[in-house]
Amino acid sequence: MLKIVQRLGITGAAALAVSFSGAFANPYAEYAGTTLIVNFPAFPHYNSVVKVLPEFTRQTGIEVEVDQLPYLKMRERQALELTQEEGAYDLISYVVFSKADYVYADQLENLAKYFMNPKLANPRYDAEDLIDGYVQNIGVAGGEKGYLPGPTGSLFGLPSGSETSVLMYRKDIFEKHGLKVPETYDELLDVTCRIPELEPGMGGMASRAASGHQASHAFLLHLAPLGGRVFDDEWNPIINNAAGLAAANALKTIVDCGPQGSSAFGPSEAANAFATGKAAMFMDSIAFAPGFEDPQKSQVAGNVGYALHPAGVRRGSQTGGFGIAIPSNAENKEAAFLLMQWMTSKEGDKLITMAGGNPSRFSTYADPEVQAKYPFAATFGEALKYADPDWRPIIPPWGRINADIGTTMSKVLTEALDPQEALDGVAERTRALMEEEGYYIWQ
């Protein structure tokens, strides 16, 4: 696929029509006429961002040129550009996996000095309104465990296109059979395998399960709510304890009782199975919800209910998706900060949401206009109270660990590998890797 480059600029008097009273100085005046080059993924949230960027230009006089690429192409381009003395981008979007790599390589700006600058930091920004699970997951590094908040933590990015997990279900099927919407994992697994008996030809729940990242993602989806973690506080792998085994068995039950072909599903295939009526439930990212409500894309539009990610030992929905950051080698860092601040402000966040994007603020989910347009917004706002920023460890070795989990779990799902044996193997290999990376040198 070719990259998509879009120029989003409004020049002349309209560009200077900023939304500030004449009684106050214009904080954007110094940067009017600047052109920012930003790198975003070809992803629905960022399609919505692109729609509203002309409003930023109208208010500020700052023009924006968007280099929009498929995600993997974007990651490859960033790997090249961030290592240059002078980079091509003033603002980038990055997936949460990249946080550890970019921060560790000193490729992202620490945002403290920008929020400390009274000429740049909007005093009405209200950072406490940002969804804290998203901020911690996508933006913070250097604190607890190296990737969570804490006394030594710093902020390197802000959420934009971040996501959490919720349960989506067929209201008509549940009403037809008098089924209770699952609130616990016991209830979830029970109804998952009752559905095929009640509705022949329909799977209980569609889930990611394909070998590699997708199988790992699906396993981790259940690990945190069932009380598990990949590591303990001293980096000892505990993925093979009782909670890990429960998560592996939960995933196997879901796939075994799911629609035909479930073991090969990626996110698109799982979503399509739900949208075409082949499954009664789908537990995954909130990003899929707008598509399920679109009659042109979904056969179940109008019949979808939304509920919190069920509780096991505790509630703990996933966090992930995208954030935005300023590269250390950017040319126009202060103007880029003004853009990222505007995009994640209450005004910008609502504009992006109304255009079809994912909110980054609690107040956006609570907004009456947003709730009127998106009936699922209230449920999603409640679900985000339980968003877990630590459901997977965002550390430099994670890519290799994640790949091992995914490959091994796929063998559990398709080759009848014993779940306990599988997890024991992952734990053993993970410990060897962590020792090689120096995680036990202080013990």
Describe how the helices and strands are arranged.
Layout: E1 4-8, E2 35-41, H1 44-60, E3 63-69, H2 71-81, E4 91-95, H3 98-104, H4 112-115, H5 132-139, E5 140-141, E6 154-155, E7 158-170, H6 171-176, H7 185-198, E8 203-206, H8 213-223, H9 242-256, H10 267-275, E9 279-285, H11 289-292, E10 304-308, E11 319-325, H12 333-343, H13 346-354, H14 362-366, H15 368-373, H16 377-383, H17 398-414, H18 419-436
Parallel strand pairs: 2-3, 2-4, 8-9
Antiparallel strand pairs: 1-3, 4-11, 5-6, 7-9, 7-10, 7-11
Q: Mind explaining what this structure looks like?
A:
By secondary structure, the chain is α/β, with parallel strands linked by helices. The chain contains 18 helices and eleven strands. It has helices spanning 44-60, 71-81, 98-104, 112-115, 132-139, 171-176, 185-198, 213-223, 242-256, 267-275, 289-292, 333-343, 346-354, 362-366, 368-373, 377-383, 398-414, 419-436, and strands at 4-8, 35-41, 63-69, 91-95, 140-141, 154-155, 158-170, 203-206, 279-285, 304-308, 319-325. The strands form two sheets. Strands 1, 2, 3, 4, 7, 8, 9, 10 and 11 form a nine-stranded mixed sheet that branches. It is globular, with a radius of gyration of 22 Å. The model is unreliable at 1-23 (pLDDT under 50).
